[in-house]
Each structure stands twice: as structure tokens, then as C-alpha cells.
Amino acid sequence: MKRRGDGGIRFVVVATGIASVAVQLVFVREYLALFKGNEIVIALIFFFWLVSGGLGTLAAKWFQGGTATASPKILAFFSYLLAIFAVCQVSAIRQLRDVIFSHGTSVGFYATVGFVASTILPYALIVGFVLPYSLMVARQRFKDYPGNWIYMADNAGDVAGGVLFSFVLVHWLSPYQTLLIVHLPLMLALWWLASASSIQNAVACVLALVALLTGVLFEERLLPTRPGQRVHYAESRYGRIEVFDDEGEISIFTDGSPSFFSNNPALAEEVVHFPLSQVDQPRRLLLISTVGGIMEEIAKYHPERVDYLEIDPMVARMQLLFGTMASMEELVVISQDARAYLADTSVCYDAILVCLPEPETFQVNRFYTDGFFELAKAHLVPGGVLSFGMAGVANYISESKREKLSSLANAAKYVFKHVMIIPGRRLFFMCRDMPIRTDVPALLEEKGIETHYIRSYYIGDQTDQRIRQVNNAVDANVDPNRDLSPKFMQQVFVDWFSLHGESPKGFILTLTAMIIVYLFQLSRSQWILFTTGCVNMGAEMVTIFAFQMLYGYIYLQVGVLVTLFLTGLLPGAYIGGRFGGDRRKGLMVMDLLLCLMFLGFFLILLCIRQSVPVVVFYGFGLAVSFCCGFQFPLALRVSGDSTTAAAHSFSADLVGAAFGVLLVSLVLIPFAGVLWATLCLAFIKLTSCFIAGTIHETT
């Protein structure tokens, strides 16, 4: 890159990129902790971040059209505001959720949309303004200053921020400590910015430092309140962990959800004795999550070894430390994702007990699919049993519950010869290749196992009529719950709207109408950038959701995946900026390459599914982002590379990216699955290729 004395503008842009990406990822953690790990919130974060950024870009365009001259002092002032708003917005996210909505209640889609939009807007709006405004300031010094240089500087900062967050900060620092660290380079760059010194900016700098330090000092006090006394708080690389003591009852919250309790004896008896009563002599057991009191019940069978899988070692330590899980000699804690462990190990078990809650997120749903059931069966000894559960029912089974029940049962029946649902406090699925007995109390009596709750009233509760009612509710025509086409999650998504008397149709139709109006205002080159932004962010969403479905632990990896989709943009933009051939053909070739990449990714997911190596996700992200980055300078130069054209191009790219996020995350994946979402993105770029063929350069 040719060097020019731009007065430090590019350093400010790079530093802004470092801060903005890290702040975005901090926002992801905060929202996941407040909305119980609901991955749809990730899509809303990216959407409103991009929309707000697009509005900021348009505001910069409006400023450029006025009489005022772009000033380094104004750039510095708005950049200092970023640090202040980052702290204020994280605090608002934490505190306002339970102020606006009732504590512990489900929040509807539109309420979630409004909350995310209002708490994201200020920071993202300024980030969107700063990028094109930086170009205006640079062009005050050099009228022919290339717009692609700002684009590349911003991308370099984004990549650096993603790498810093994903490989350092998320492992060692809390959210407010992260905000402090990532804004320090920006504040240093602003001091070096030529002609930016003023009393107002000095005051803004002091206020920014005070805000950042205040967040660090009052980190724990700014957490949302919950019932009981908080006795422990920690941030691990997998999420937020809080321990509460409510009059002697210990609760461990992970990402805002109560995950473990000190005492739940009735549920513990069901979880343990329903499956283990089926096995003659259970010697080796595998636990995926736990419930309070489970170890005491397991000990009655005198197993030789109990393997407990918990991906976050800090969570396992907290359970043992605060007594939500009793220690026993035979217990072995394995800090690994359950599916990854089963894919790697050759150990077989007499029983695999899944103690997870009902799958209401993609993170949990991956343990209720045909792919997981296949893994589990491969690690059961002959006659071994897999058990898992979902929320129970009284007497009436609603149509929604029937759909969910059937999708899980059909997925299990695809793998196991015998699947029986036993009603209790939850609906427990017993899966094995040998017949299953439903007279659990009698089985326990034969084994000499003493229980309290099952013996006292379960004989009357587990009548043949009730067991038949539940099992007869299974509809064989309902699609099974699959890894890449999660039928259960589709119903959860529908139920979310039904619970609050809402429908996504109004939101989707309004958005579609706005996009159509916007598209009619675009030139052909800007339309290319719109589709480029759309498929780049759409591919990012496909990758994030597919990774979550197959591997889990998305919060740890989301920063890596986001960084990879940013990393390819920089070399792509650099090579595209130096491209001396036919730009129209260059755009067409990149569009065709993107089509082929999506088709290749589709075939890989279709053919090898849960055996897809992690490197495929990484390579896909780099390749897609490289092609998208290559297209930006070509389309910009085709449209003239003026300041106005640059603002329009930035805006088209951002709006397209925002549309891609919602199209993939709220429509295609929930209702069609990952595979169809991938094909749809290929089709979008195919239409873009035809449009690129009609372009005539203006320069």
C-alpha cells in the first residue's frame, strides 16, 4: 500500500475497528446471559448493529452534503463517545431487562427486537458514522485519497479486534475489563490525530477513561439481581457463572439460566431409576449434565465408574464446591463437549443419562437429534439404555406438544429398535435395542433399591392408560428432529410467537417492502455490493448456526468465526484494489466462485454431517470473505470512487449484510434448515452474476 501522510486517520480507523468488534462480541455475551442462550438474539444483534451502522453511514453522507467542513476534532469527539457509550450500553443491557420486563418471564419477539435495537443503537450508529467521515477528513488533505484504503484499515482493525478478543480477552478478562483494554488503542490514536486537539476533546478523553474505569471497579454490582444472595461470580470462556444462596438452597446460573440446584430428590429419582432399572447390573455410566441429588441415587447401584461430561471445567468445580453435585469415588469429571467426546472415544457404557433441559436453544437441541442418538448408540453395550426427557404433561397433550414429542420419538426410533416414553415429572424417553419395561417400581423392588418418591405414589401415577396415552400421541408422519433440520426448534420458534400472540409475518413483510424500495434506488454496482454483504453475513450466520448444531460452545467460537469472516476481506480488498483487468468480468468470476463455494459447503454438510472437521468451517469463512472483499473495490471503482459513491457503497454493503442476517437466521434456518439456507445464498449470488454482466463502467 502506498503511504501518505493522512494525519493519523488510518490509525484511528484501525483502532476503531479493534474496539468495535470486541464491543460487539461483549454485547453477544450480555444478551445471551439475559435471554437464556437464545441464539436468535445473536442474529438480532448483528442485524441492528449493521442497520445502525448503515444509518450512521447515511448520516455521514448527509453531513458531507452540508456546508460544514469535515474536521479531525469532530472525528475525535465522536470517537471518544464510543468508549463512553460502550460502558453505558453494557450497563443498560444488564439493568434494563428486568426493569422493562418482569423478572424470569419469557420476552416476546417484538419486545426482544425493541430491547436489542434500543440498547445497540448509540454505539453502532457512531461506528457507522466514523468510517465514511474518516474518509471525508482524509480527503480534506488529499482529494484523491482512495476510499478502499479506509475500507482496508477498518477491516484490519476488525480482524485485530476479533483475534485479540477470541484468543486473549475472552479467556482472561471480564466484559468491563475487555472494554477498557480495547478502547485504549483508540484513545492513543486520537491523541496522535493531527489537528484534533481541543479542550472539548480533552474533557471527552477524561470522561471516557472515567467511564471505562468505573465499569471495571463496579463490575459485579452492575450485574442483574436474582433471588437470593450472590455468593460467587465468574466469567469463563464458555459463559457467565453465578452462584446464589436462597435460604440454604444453592442455585448455579449459567448464562442467565438456573442450571443446577442443590436438592431436587424427586427428579433425581426419575432421572436415575427409570433407565437404570432396565439394566441388569450397570457398571459404567455416562452423565451429560446433572440434577441435584443424582449421585446419591446412582450410588445405590454401586457402579464401577461414572463419567460426567461438562464442557466448562469451572462449572463442574462450582457444583462440587457448593454441593449441587455430591462427590463420589467412582466419579470422573471430563471437561469436554459430550458430542466431541463420543466422537473420539471407544469406551462403551451400560447407560447414558442426558439430564439437560428441554431443547429450546440450538446449543441444547444438538443432544436431541438423530445424529446424537447415533453417536450414543455406538457407545452403548448390548442391552444398554439411553435416556433423555422433555417437559411433562398433565392429561391433555396440545398439538404443539404432540409435534415436539413426535419429532424426538421419531428421531430416536430411527436409531433404536425400542423407544418408550414414561411419564413422570418430565416425559422420559427410554431408548435401547431390547424391550423396555414400564413397571419401574416393581423393577426397583426386584433389585432391592430403596426409593422414596417413586415407591410412594408412582405406581398410581404410571398407569398403563397414561403410558399408552403418551406413547400413542406420537405421530409417525412428523419429521424427526435432525441436526441440520431441527424440527423441534422450528416448533419452539412457532411457540415463541404463539405464546405472546404475535406473528413474524408483519415484521418480515415490512422488512421485505423496505428492502424492495431500497433496491430500486441502487445502481447495478451497488446492487452487487448489496448481495455481497447479504451472502457474506448470511454465510456467517449459516456457519455459526451449523457449528452450534454440530459442535456447541458457540460463545467461545463465535469470536473466532466472526474474525475469520473478517480476515478474508482484507487480502480480498487489497488484491481487488490492485486488479487491473476487466472489472465487470472480475465481479462475475467472484460471483460464480461464491456459488460454487456454497454448493460445496452444502454437499459437505449433506454427506458427512457430524464428521465435518472444524477446519472446513474456518476455510469456508476465509474463502467467502476473500471473494466478498475482492468485489468491494471493483464495484467502488466501477461506480466512480467519489465520496458520495463510497458512502453509497458502504451503505449498500451494510444494508445487504443486515438483510442477510435476518433472511438466514429468522426465516431460512428455523423453517427450512441449514442446507436450504446455503442453497438460497448460492442462488442470490447467481442472480448477482447476471446483473454484473450488464454493468458499464463510469470511469
Explain what the structure shows.
A hairpin with a 2-residue loop joins strand 1 and strand 2 (239-246). The protein is built from 26 helices and eleven strands. It starts with 8 loop residues before the first helix and ends in a 7-residue tail after the last helix. It is of the alpha/beta class and 699 residues long. The protein has three domains: 1-224, Growth Hormone, Chain: A, CATH 1.20.1250; 257-478, Rossmann fold (3-Layer(aba) Sandwich), CATH 3.40.50; 504-699, MFS general substrate transporter like domains (Growth Hormone, Chain: A), CATH 1.20.1250.20. The chain has helices at 9-34, 40-65, 72-100, 109-141, 147-172, 175-192, 199-217, 265-276, 294-298, 313-322, 338-344, 362-365, 370-377, 399-413, 440-447, 453-461, 464-472, 487-499, 505-519, 524-550, 554-567, 569-577, 583-608, 614-638, 643-672, 674-692, and strands at residues 229-236, 239-246, 249-254, 257-261, 284-288, 305-309, 331-334, 349-354, 380-391, 418-423, 426-432. The radius of gyration is 27 Å and the shape is globular.
E-strand count: 11
Total helical elements: 26
Summarize the main sheet: 7 strands, mixed
What percentage of residues falls in helices of 4 or more residues?
Answer: 55-70%
- Structural class by helix and strand composition: alpha/beta
Distance linking N and C termini: 22 Å
- What portion of residues belong to β-strands? 5-15%
Name the CATH class of the largest domain: Mainly Alpha
CATH domain topology of the largest domain = Growth Hormone, Chain: A
CATH architecture of the largest domain: Up-down Bundle
